[in-house]
């Protein structure tokens, strides 16, 4: 609910995301809300990528440099703070929708 109020405000023509007068906590909250909205909008991409990477990581040849570098960069993306929480929230929300639509 807090994110919805922040994201519903329209910025002015000269408004930037990081203003000198804006406290750091508010800037962090705005960025977290934007990340949550972006992840939930792109939930099919993130969920498919995560399930495919988990399956393929067990089959990868980790003795070659390209395999190690690929796995490093993918895990770096999914290690962002709060990203897995948002993906879990998306899975929970999807299960609730499917459960209520079956009635």
UniProtKB/TrEMBL annotation:
One of its GO terms (molecular function) is sphingomyelin phosphodiesterase D activity. It comes from Geodia barretti. It comes from the Eukaryota. This is Uncharacterized protein.
């Amino acid at each position: 609910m807090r994110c919805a109020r922040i994201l519903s405000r329209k910025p002015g023509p000269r408004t930037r995301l990081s203003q000198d007068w804006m406290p750091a906590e508010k800037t962090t909250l705005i960025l977290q809300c934007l990340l949550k909205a972006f992840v939930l909008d792109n939930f099919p991409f993130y969920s498919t990528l995560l399930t495919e990477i988990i399956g393929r990581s067990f089959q990868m040849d980790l003795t070659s440099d390209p395999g190690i570098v690929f796995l490093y960069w993918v895990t770096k993306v999914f290690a962002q703070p709060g990203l897995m929480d948002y993906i879990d929230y998306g899975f929970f929300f999807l299960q609730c929708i499917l459960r209520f639509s079956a009635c």
